[in-house]
Amino acid sequence: YKDTVIMVFYCQRHCYEKKYSTTVVACKPAKQEIIVNGKKKKIDCYETTFEDTVMFPEGGGQPDDRGSVDGISVLRVLRRGGEAVHYLEKPLEVGAVVTQQIDWKRRHDHMQQHSAQHLITAVADTMYGYATRSWYLGESVSYIELDTEKIPKEEVELLEEAVNQRIRDATPVHIVEYDALDPKLKEIRTRGLPEDIVGPVRVVTIENVDTNMCCGTHVHNLADLQAIKLLYTEKGKSNKTLLYFVAGARVLRYFGECITRETQLTALLHSCPSDHQRLVEKNQKDLKSMLLVGCFEVSERSHERLGCF
User: Fold this and answer.
1) What does the alpha-carbon distance between residue 124 and residue 204 come to, in Å, rounded to a whole number?
2) What is the four-CA torsion angle of 88, 90, 96, 100, rounded to 10 degrees?
3) What is the pLDDT of residues 266-284, one digit of tens each?
4) Which of 224-238, 263-277, 293-307 is the most confident on average?
């Protein structure tokens, strides 16, 4: 996989900042495609750039931030060369000093998932030699595409224990900026710089675990991830394996949803959770038997009407 390395914005230098005052550089009418009720729709908006931004533009596998500027909703934030282009619901006056405010819950979630991906990628490579080819940060769960045909259950369990040990160790995460021509970059694990690189190159280091170039926002310490749960694997394309995971606040949310479903099943089956699987299998077997008996009776009545008996 390859993280996109871009011009370093305020949001990348100060990942935990929620507000920032800056100046409007340009603002013009535009159309932008957004998701409305699960469907893509082009809407009228205002394409706006600032001297700097606290809002992360989409890149490196990480979705863009949301938030507001002087109370005006920000619909999208995209990278265009060395600029972060913001799409706003209403216009702003060029030259005005404004206050940007991010949706912190969304930002922090993305930081947790992105740092978790770096950690899982590094440890999977170290332990088993599984290289990461790509990754996807989803709205509820994310996955890493690993260069292996399959991952045994035992390896997944050991990998999960290893990454969570790094979290329990409160492993620091450092971000350092280098000039694109700095010879030190040749010593750092990378998959190549993009052709449209602008400005310094950010290098994210998980102490004693991994060092890699990345444009995304990250936690300052792995303790901020709280925990990582490796959920399941799925066969990918070209003999690859998709490893699904949740990290940080998503772990509690995922666990909470599981508890809700378990409680509902307990009420429906009138049994304790440990007995759910047996009862469902029994009910399925009984239902199949009833359907078979019903089909046989219908067949008998049909034959009788036709004078077959």
Assistant:
1) 18
2) -40
3) 898 888 899 888 988 888 8
4) 224-238
